[in-house]
């Protein structure tokens, strides 16, 4: 599973020292992968990839050809140090710098990491400035080593081609083309992963289901191009309102959007939802003698082993249905203590 790539503009001078860092993170927690991706996204000399299945780490590393590997130590079913040893035993990866990420600031753990072939050690999640500096340092050392080989030039071109292919893949498989938010596929993957994490950690998971009120009427009155512009503006508000590295804003379909809020209880989710309603109203987009508004259904749950993410989604959808029936331009929360609603309402109000 690869992370989002940032492709440098060929007309802009290359970053300092003209090095490109191809970073691969091996970590089973999607939340950590997304946090690191966002931390590195502002640096055009970084191309970021990640793998959440440690059993596929070697395959992904051989395909990506990283200049730095960020390796988590504790993962289900696999010891991170076993992977470090495997990298060192593979001719294609034996020289690639490995930065071990651990939750422990422990001398014995550090010693084991270095003895097994790690080049560096950081306690996660590290400060962005330090992480960027260390990645650049190890990339520079690694590429200086490779530059002595004529194959280095071919590697640079291979990196550029991989970046272009990866960027296109992300656009097709993870991003909604109209709004720039995550698409339905990415939302489904993220929700499933965070549900599993919530089962392990016992932390709450909140979901906002959002609908643009009377959107069909707007399209009929102003045309589809104007309707698309409304969706883009509403998406911008939603994206800005879900600004934490662990939040995910996505287009669910048509005029419906969803937001995943990790480790956020119902009170916090309601606060985020109310703020989104106010900010969309403040856009002041004229519609039906008033303004374009949104309705929001909020659901919060503590994921459990026998449960399914669809239960949380259905609960938020049912709350959205009630918000629309109650007059729209408002937020309503699902009541989940007893159980989860299983059915989506058959007849949605327009």
Summarize this entry quickly.
Helix content is 45%, strand content 19%. It has helices spanning 30-40, 57-64, 80-89, 107-115, 128-146, 151-173, 184-201, 215-222, 224-241, 266-282, 309-325, and strands at residues 21-26, 46-51, 68-72, 74-75, 78-79, 98-102, 120-123, 205-212, 248-253, 256-262, 286-287, 290-291, 294-301, 331-333.
Descriptive notes:
The chain is of the alpha/beta class and 350 residues long. It has two domains: 158 residues, Response regulator (Rossmann fold, 3-Layer(aba) Sandwich), CATH 3.40.50; 150 residues, Alpha-Beta Plaits (2-Layer Sandwich). It is 45% helix and 19% strand. The protein contains eleven helices and 14 strands. It has a five-stranded parallel β-sheet, sandwiched between helices. Strand 1, helix 1 and strand 2 form a beta-alpha-beta unit. Helix 8 crosses helix 9 and helix 9 packs across helix 10. It starts with 20 loop residues before the first strand and ends in a 17-residue tail after the last strand. The N terminus is likely disordered.
Topology:
Layout: E1 21-26, H1 30-40, E2 46-51, H2 57-64, E3 68-72, E4 74-75, E5 78-79, H3 80-89, E6 98-102, H4 107-115, E7 120-123, H5 128-146, H6 151-173, H7 184-201, E8 205-212, H8 215-222, H9 224-241, E9 248-253, E10 256-262, H10 266-282, E11 286-287, E12 290-291, E13 294-301, H11 309-325, E14 331-333
Parallel strand pairs: 1-2, 1-3, 3-6, 6-7, 13-14
Antiparallel strand pairs: 4-5, 8-10, 8-13, 9-10, 11-12
User: Residue-averaged pLDDT, rounded?
Assistant: 87
How many β-strand runs?
Answer: 14
What would CATH call the class of the largest domain?
Alpha Beta
Total count of helical runs of at least 4 residues? 11
Residue share in β-strands: 15-25%
Structural domains: how many? 2
Shape descriptor: elongated
CATH architecture term of the largest domain? 3-Layer(aba) Sandwich
């Amino acid at each position: 599973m690869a992370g989002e790539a940032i492709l440098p503009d060929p007309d802009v001078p290359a970053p300092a020292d003209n090095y490109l860092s191809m970073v691969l993170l091996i970590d089973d927690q999607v939340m950590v992968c997304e946090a690191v991706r966002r931390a590195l996204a502002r640096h055009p000399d970084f191309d970021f990839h990640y793998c959440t299945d440690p059993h596929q780490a070697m395959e992904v590393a051989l395909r990506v050809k990283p200049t730095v590997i960020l390796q988590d130590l504790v993962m289900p079913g696999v010891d991170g140090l076993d992977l470090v040893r495997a990298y060192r035993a593979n001719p294609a990866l034996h020289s690639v710098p490995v930065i071990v990420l651990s939750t422990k600031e422990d001398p014995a753990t550090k010693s084991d990491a270095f003895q097994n072939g790690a080049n560096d050690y950081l306690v996660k999640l590290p400060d962005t400035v330090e992480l960027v500096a260390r990645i650049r340092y190890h990339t520079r050392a690694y590429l200086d080593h490779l530059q002595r080989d004529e194959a280095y030039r071919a590697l640079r071109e291979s990196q550029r081609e991989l970046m272009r292919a990866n960027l296109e893949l992300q656009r097709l498989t993870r991003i909604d083309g109209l709004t720039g938010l995550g698409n339905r596929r990415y939302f489904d993957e993220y929700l499933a992963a965070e549900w599993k994490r919530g089962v392990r950690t016992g932390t709450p998971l909140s979901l906002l289901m959002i609908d643009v009120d009377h959107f069909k009427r707007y399209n009929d009155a102003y045309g589809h191009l104007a309707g698309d512009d409304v969706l883009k503006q509403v998406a911008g508000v939603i994206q800005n309102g879900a600004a934490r590295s662990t939040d995910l804003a996505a287009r669910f379909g048509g005029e419906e959007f969803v937001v995943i809020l990790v480790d956020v209880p119902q009170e916090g989710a309601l606060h985020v939802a109310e703020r989104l309603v106010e900010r969309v109203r403040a856009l002041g987009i004229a519609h039906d003698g008033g303004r374009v508004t949104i309705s929001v259904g909020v659901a919060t749950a503590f994921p459990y082993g026998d449960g399914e993410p669809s239960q949380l989604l259905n609960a938020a959808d049912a709350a959205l249905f009630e918000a629309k029936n109650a007059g729209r331009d408002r937020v309503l929360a699902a009541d989940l203590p007893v159980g989860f609603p299983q059915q989506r309402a058959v007849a949605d109000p327009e």
